[in-house]
Amino acid sequence: MADKKFELTEVSSGKKAVLPFRSGTLGPDVIDVASLPKEFDAFTIDPGFGVTAACDSKITYIDGDAGVLMHRGYPIEQLAEKSSYMEVCYLLLNGELPGAGQLDKFTNDIRHHTMINESLLRFYNGFHHNAHPMAMVSAVVASMSAFYHDTMDIHNPRHREIFAHRVIAKLPTIAAAAHKHSLGQPFVYPRNDLSYCENLLHMFFAVPCAPYIVNPVAAEALDLLFILHADHEQNASTSTVRLAGSTGTNPYAAISAGVAALWGPAHGGANEAVLAMLEQIGTVDNIPKYLAMAKDKSSHFRLMGFGHRVYKNFDPRAKIIRAACHKVLKSLGQTNNPLFELALKLEEIALKDDYFVERKLYPNVDFYSGVIYSALNIPRAMFTVMFAVARAVGWVAHWQEMIADPAMRIGRPRQLYTGPGKRDYVEIGKR
Ligand code: CMC
After folding, report:
1. Which residue of 364, 365, 368, 391 sits with most ligand 1 atoms within 8 Å of its CB, as the best mutation to test the pocket?
2. Mean pLDDT in residue range 72-84
């Protein structure tokens, strides 16, 4: 709606300014405040970016009140049921679902890049055996920028494409190397005859002294989790990648910044924290005690895996994962999984509690994902790494979209200064 406008009045002076609205394909309009400094000598302030759109994007749409998530217009439920992670990667990067030949070519392009440079592999030896894998992964991803000088011109579309393929292809290898380093086991090289998730599981669990056959149930479950984690519009880590990338820094450094942002427990680190919390709660009898702690404002304890900045309804990804838990645990012969039983009971009790109802706090994507990861024998410290592997494509897609936009500018927020006014320097002996 081009002629929809918003009038802002500075009450004391009566000065008025007309601010344009902009409409997207779906979702609320935005008010374009770019003229505010000129009109009123004022900025907007929005700590936590609760009501600020940072960019235009064609990739992912969320309606938080309705619990809707779509990638390039396709509902997440349909992608989860019918698609594959490789196909979703192609969709996020290219805007359309691939034809059979295009998917084949894309999958082969990714396969072509699964190995990491042997020098990069030696970086792991510098880490203590109990280093958190996210520390290793963020460092190794940042170090990739030291290896690919030949294809790092961010203004060259072919270079950007090779970068995208490298990140998606090498993240499982980087993650598996971190896992093997933690265990003190030899690194297992990628196998390009396997699918993306089969290869990841093989690199994680195979050892040189025995054959290892990947369980197809495990590979399928991982593929589903990866689809559900692939992108989530302007979340904290994606916004970090965009902000870092907007300076023109090399793209591997921008992705590494995203890995670092994802690590926090308010974001991707929540999946690890959920499992720690469930183990701490231990039994159903303890649930009321922990719910009371989560509601107590003097305690830092929060119900991990609950609440979301955008979803004020069920996170659609949590619904899909909860249903998948039943199926995966049954297929793996783990029908009486105590962690899953406890999580279900915790959800049931919390969703009847006024505190959670009034604040619209529902389980998010991280609440149930750890149940599946642990059923697949992936250790708790690796959960956020799994999230990073899956989210890499989202980060890359957003970075690509930003760099290809001729209107791209450096991301540079302003502030409300609340420090001291001007004062004169005092010599040290006189202070
Ligand atoms: N447990 C207890 N209280 C909560 C929780 C929770 N998990 N989440 C929000 N609240 C309360 C919060 O204390 C506040 O209460 P009041 O209005 O009385 O001050 C109210 O609900 C609104 O919360 P907020 O902190 O203003 O919400 P936010 O949008 O800034 O934070 C969040 C969103 C996801 C960081 C937060 O809900 C949270 O910390 N959840 C637990 C961590 C988690 O599961 N994170 C994963 C997010 S989804 C996946 C991802 O991003 O990677």
Report:
1. 364
2. 98
